[in-house]
Every structure is written in C-alpha cells, then in structure tokens.
Amino acid sequence: xxxxxxxxxxxxxxxxxxxxxxxxxxxxxxxxxxxxxxxxxxxxxxxxxxxxxxxxxxxxxxxxxxxxxxxxxxxxxxxxxxxxxxxxxxxxxxxxxxxxxxxxxxxxxxxxxxxxxxxxxxxxxxxxxxxxxxxxxxxxxxxxxxxxxxxxxxxxxxxxxxxxxxxxxxxxxxxxxxxxxxxxxxxxxxxxxxxxxxxxxxxxxxxxxxxxxxxxxxxxxxxxxxxxxxxxxxxxxxxxxxxxxxxxxxxxxxxxxxxxxxxxxxxxxxxxxxxxxxxxxxxxxxxxxxxxxxxxxxxxxxxxxxxxxxxxxxxxxxxxxxxxxxxxxxxxxxxxxxxxxxxxxxxxxxxxxxxxxxxxxxxxxxxxxxxxxxxxxxxxxxxxxxxxxxxxxxxxxxxxxxxxxxxxxxxxxxxxxxxxxxxxxxxxxxxxxxxxxxxxxxxxxxxxxxxxxxxxxxxxxxxxxxxxxxxxxxxxxxxxxxxxxxxxxxxxxxxxxxxxxxxxxxxxxxxxxxxxxxxxxxxxxxxxxxxxxxxxxxxxxxxxxxxxxxxxxxxxxxxxxxxxxxxxxxxxxxxxxxxxxxxxxxxxxxxxxxxxxxxxxxxxxxxxxxx
Length: 611
Fold this sequence. Notes:
Elements: H1 2-15, H2 30-36, E1 39-45, H3 51-58, E2 66-69, H4 85-88, E3 94-98, E4 115-119, H5 138-146, H6 154-164, E5 165-167, H7 173-179, E6 186-190, H8 197-208, E7 224-227, E8 229-233, E9 236-237, H9 240-245, E10 254-257, E11 261-268, E12 271-278, E13 284-295, H10 298-308, E14 311-312, H11 314-319, E15 326-327, E16 338-339, E17 344-347, H12 359-370, E18 383-387, E19 399-406, H13 411-420, H14 425-435, E20 439-447, E21 455-457, E22 468-470, H15 477-494, H16 497-502, E23 505-507, H17 522-532, E24 534-535, E25 567-569, H18 584-610
C-alpha cells in the first residue's frame, strides 16, 4: 500500500508542477566550465546545509566569481512533502554510509551494522531530514568559546541564526527580536497539524512529573515538552537551496556544477589552489581558485577530501600511500546523536477506527488542497521532550525524546517510521500483530551530549570508495547509564494518573537476540539497547575547530585549516562538541558566520593593498 501511496502522490505532483520546477534552482554549468578553463575566486565543495548559505553570501560581492560543486542533483518533488521524508532515506538523494561493526549498537539491524544517511542533492541533508529547526542552548556555544574559539559564544553567534530566519508572528515581538529573525530567506514555521491525542497524553503526564510545557523550543528555557518548528512554508519543506540558491539563480558571478564529485584539493605547497573533480560523464578536470577553496561537504565527505589531499593524521596517510602535507587529527572527534527506538508503549484506544478504503486519497487531497493532514507533518518528530535524566535541577537537557504514534490498524504509519529505523523483520511483524488490537507509541530517547566519540579513516585512495566509520557508540559507560535513566523516566510516566487511567503499559519487544533474558530486567533492557539503538543522522566534529595549540583541532576560529593557506571548512564537521538538539539550525548558522569571516578577511586584504 505504501508503493500505491507513493505512485498516487507522484501522479498528483505531476499536476502540481510548482513542486517540480527545474527552473527553481541554478542551472548546471558543468559543460561550460569544463570547456572554458574559467578561473574562480572561490570554490565551494558541497551545496548542502551550509554550502548553499556560503554560496549565497559570497556571490553578494559582484566581482567575486564563485563556483559551487555538488555531487547530487536538484531535490526531487517528493522531498518537498514533510510526511514522506522517511522515504528519502532509501532514495538516490541519500548517501547510505555503513559503519564498521560494533557489538554495542544496531545488533538487530541489517548485517548488525548502523547505516548513517546524509543528503546527496542540492541542500544536502536539509533536503532529506525531518526539518526540525532547533537552535540548542547557550551553554553549547559558550563551551565552544571557552575552548579557545573566539567569536563563537552564544551572544556572538545569535545574530547569525537571526540573519537567515524568516519567522512568522506567532510569538511576542520581544521573542522574535532575540530568538527568531523575520527578514531572512529561510522560512521557520510550525508544522500544519494539530496536537494529537497521544501528544496531549504525554504532555499531561509530563505536567504531573513537574516537567514544564514549553511555549517555544527556541528560547531561553530548555527543559520541557513542546512543539518544534521546522524549515517549511505553506506545508512544504524549505531546504537551504530553496532559501539561499533559488533567489540568486541568475547572479552572473554564480557557477554551479551538479552531479560532480570532488576528488581532491589541489595544492601548491601548503596553499589550496583548486579542486580536482569527476564529471557526470566520467571525465576528470581541475578547477582553479585564486582566493580560497571552501569545503562544505559535511562531516563525512569533508574529512575524506582533506585526507585524500594529504591533510590528516600522518601515520594513517602514509599507510594509505598518501604523502602527508600537514599532520592534523582529521576524522577524529566524530560525534553523533544515538537514539533508542526500542521502547514501545501499548494501550487500548476505544475510539480507534480502521482507516477507510479511501484513506490515502483523502490524505493526498487534504495535503494538496489544504496543506494539512499526515503529509503536512513529519511523523510526529516535531513533538519533543527535552529533559535532564542525570540532574533534575539542571537548566540544560542531556536527553531529547521523540514520540511516534502507531494508531490501531494504521499499518502505513508504522511502515513509514520503520523506514527510518529498519530493525529486524521478525520484530516488526510482532509489533504489526499488536496493532490489530492496540494503539502503540514509541518513546525514543537520544543522548544529547554523548561522552563517546568515534573517528573516520580512509578505506581507499579512490574518492569513490566510502570511508570507514568507527562510531564507538556507547564506548563510554556514562552514555549507557543516561539511556537507562531515560528508561526510568518513562517508567515514572507510566505511574502517572494520566497513563494509568488510559491503561498504558510498557510493551515487551520480542527481540530474537534477547530471548535469553527475562522481560523487564536490567539484562533485557541492556540487550534491547544493543539491538535497537541506532544513529539519528547528526554527525559532527570530524574537522574540529580549536586554537592552534589544541592538538585535537583541525581548523581555527576563522575556520581556516591549520598550517594551510586558502583552505577553509564550513559545515557541521567543525563543531568542537555536538549541540543539544538537531544539528541543521547550527549548521546554517555556521554557514552564515563562515561567509562573514571570509568577507572580513578579504576586505582586510583589499584595504592593505590600497594602503
């Protein structure tokens, strides 16, 4: 039925040509660039969450010729529909990076390994993710500043959040003035869906536990339950190319290469002078930059490109047969958010009714005509709880909680979520059987500030071969303990009057690899965690920002690669520590700030030349 659903939606989209207008994006000028030996001022690798922003801001300077290189193509029309985002994970618009085997996680997923998904299209991950726009809290950025990164404190980076934003007037002017701008190109909106019965139930239970209900997730209060905003407008996803590239597609100084893979940074000694790329037709060409090369390829591809170019851990590069230009800890400090979709609640919903035979058609109609319904929502991801399970008095959360609802008989809801977290088929079938009698809810905690970190290493000198990802999830026992305390939190919720009145119970997920354990014992839950936990696609930190005297850092506070000239990295990989929430909003902010740093530095150069 899901494939019929997709066929129906795609058919209607053919009519709704505004969703699929190729003219919305800059044209692909790969052929022209390959044939004309054009020299650029700046080359940006990756038209993703940050790269689209940097491109927009640099092309504001009319006499700067800017080339943007993207391995993917334009986002598909399906990517515009919030309710279909989980289907994008297994599409050509997503890289699927398999991690190296680790017995601590993903043991009930295919081949017992985690798969990390990042975007492969204009917009990168902003074109395929759950669209949540969460700025995180002041402490995250003040921590970066305390680590020696001048200019990155909360008060200093807030203007760079506001610069992008176009928020509607649902909150006070005072809130908008500080936390959400309204003159930027990126629309930040609430999802066009009403609060569900299940969400109300969780909020009522949270109140009983004295957990606040937040008016807004982006503000000066960080602990509590609330509805998150997303990057969307009129019920459609707004990815970064729509916000930052579409309005400037006709700028004469903008050049874009699509379906083009960057293979290495070209160097003259320790100066970056261009990029070697492989075109769609398989040809390899060099493109030159007179001022800077900027890597915005994301937390997996940016470190890969640096290492392929000789910039990285000396010993590892020598083992790979790559001459080392600068010895830096590229690929280390890799952080991600781990989620645990292994906690299922069940309850009898007396008012539940089976979906009507025209359910899919009705939802398609609701969406296309009224921009409402399940297609206008993101599967319930926008309903989040931020709690601190280790310190009840803390101002800052250490755990984020997502809640997914599988209404009785509504198999499509479950199939959609299972696409994002595709655990073992036998486990899925058992849950599907439960759905014939009960409503089910998944309570998915995520460790926001993991103590565990991993690293990336090259698998091959061939840029087409994916890197090795050693995630090291749960290598630090503190992260396991945080998850177990999140389980305690849900057990406290189950004892509230709200949950007991509804007869909600913690369902025993029958996991083949955990049948040697007794239900609801520590042994079972630790086994459940090993089998069901997985990543929620927020990789950061692999090109760490820090001062030159920090041996774990790769770029300085102006995002310049240590020991190199004319080379910067501007994307999520520069985060010294992961933020306490979804990473898209901070990555857009990094794009805005990074572009300003470039402008400042080159205006300073120009001023010197004129003296």
